[in-house]
Amino acid sequence: MTAVRQATRPKSPPSSVLERYEPVIGIEVHCQLRTASKMFCSCSTAYDGAPPNTHTCPVCLGLPGALPTINRRAVEHVLTTGLAIEATFPETTRWERKNYFYPDLPKGYQISQYAIPLAAAGRLTFETSEGAISVGITRAHLEEDTAKLIHSTTADGRRVSLIDFNRSGAPLMEIVTEPEVHSAEAARRYAEELQLMLRAIGVSDADMERGQMRVEANVSLRPRGAKEFGTRVEIKNMNSFRSVERAVGHEIERQAAALDAGEPLVQETRGWDDGRGATYRMRVKETSDDYRYFPEPDLPPLHVEAPGLEELRARLPELPSARRARYTSDLVLSAYDAGVIVSDPAMLTAFEAILAVGPQLPPKEVANLVTGDYGRAAKEIDLRTPAGLVGLSEPGELADLLRRILDGKLSRANAKEVLAEHIAKGSSVASIVDARGFRQISDVSALAATVDEVLAANPAAVADYRAGKPQAIRFLVGQVMKATRGQANAAVVQATLRERLDAADPGHA
Ligand SMILES: [Zn+2]
The pTM is what? Predict the structure, then answer.
C-alpha cells in the first residue's frame, strides 16, 4: 500500500503506452535554503511581503566593483543535504559563472557550481504503489537565485515588465537525479519525499506553492528493452506535487503519440498549463555550451574538511526514511500508518508526544488515534493555528483516553464522543467522562436483557443471520449499542449475540 493516499489520483498513461515504451525521467529541484542572509551579500532573506527592491545592495544588484562573500550557513545546508542522501564530497570545489542574458540577472551571469558540485552520488529511497524505489542523485550544488519579473499593465494601458531584486542573490540549492525515475507517480513521490527530508533536516521550507521548491522534469521515452535514450523534453512550471504527476503523465502520452505517428521529437523546454492539463512549447533547449561557464575570479575555492563534516553529521536528526523503518520494526506499525504519520508534522508531533507520556501504550493504538478522529480534527485546527497539534490538547489527556479504552472502562463509541467534546471545549477527559456518566458495560449478565430485547425486536436481522448472512450481526450490535447509549462493550455484545443466535439455530447444531 502506498504511504500517501489521495482522494483523486491523476490518471496514469494508458497501459498500452507503458507496455511499448519505457519512460525515462530525471528530476531537477531548485530549493531556497533557509538562511538569514543572501548567498553572497548580507542582505536579509526575509523579503516575503516586503515592498519591491528594499532588500538589495551593490552585490545583489550586480553593480560594478561589488565583491561577493560566501554564506557559510548555505554551504553547511548543502553539505547536510549531502549527508542525508549519503553523497560523497570533494576536498575542494570552486565557483563558476553561468553566463546568459535575461533582465532578472543583473550581472549577466549567475554564480553557480558546474565542474565540481558540493555533493555528488547520493540517493533517495521512497515508497510508491509499486513498492520502494531508490533513485540516484547525481549532484547537489549551490548557486544564487535571480530577481523576480512582474509583468503588468500601467494605468494608461501600456504593458510593462517590472523587476524586484529582493530575491536576487538568495541562496539556491540545485539537486539533480540520475534518469532513474520511470513513472509519473514516482516523479511525484520523489518530490514529496525530498520535501519531507529537506524540512526534517531544516535546510529549506521547500514550499512549492511559494516557489521555495521548484521542480523540473526531463522526460524521454524509449522502446521497452532499448538501451539508448530518446529525445528528452524538459518540463517547467509545475507548482504542486499533483501537477508534477499530471504533467509528467501528460508528457509521456504526448511523446508516445508522436513516436507512434513517426513524428520526430524536439529537444525543448515545455511549460505545464495546469488549467488546460497540457504542456506547451516554451523554447528550444539550450545546451551547457551556450552558458560559457568559466571560473569565478572573485571567490576563493571552497575546502570541505572532515572535522566540519563530522560535526554536521552529528547534528543530523533522524531522517524520515529511518523513522519510518523504526516505526515499522520497533513499534510494529503498518507501513501505511508509518508513512502517514511521518509525512504529517502535526500527526508526528502528537504521536511522539502521546508515546512520551504513555510509553506503555501500544503504539498501534496511539497511531489509530492520531491518524483517525483526533488527527482529522487536529489537522483542521492546525490549518488555522500554527501552534500545531500538541498546543491543541495535552498529550496526557489523549493518553488518559486511550488508557480508559484499553482498561475496558470506556467503550470506543463513548470515547469518540469524549474526544469530540475534548477537542471542541478543551475540558479534561476525566471531567467529560464523569459529567456524562460514561462507564463501559462489559458484564454479560448486565447486557443479557438488552440483547434479548434487541433479538426479539429485530426478527428480520435474526433471519438474515441464520440464512447465512453473518454481516447481519453488525446491525444487531449497533442496536444494542444504541440501547445502552454506547456504553456496552461492543466485543462482549458481539460474542453474546453470536452465542444466542448460534445456540438457538438448529442449522448450527
Ligand atoms: Zn545584497
Answer: 0.82
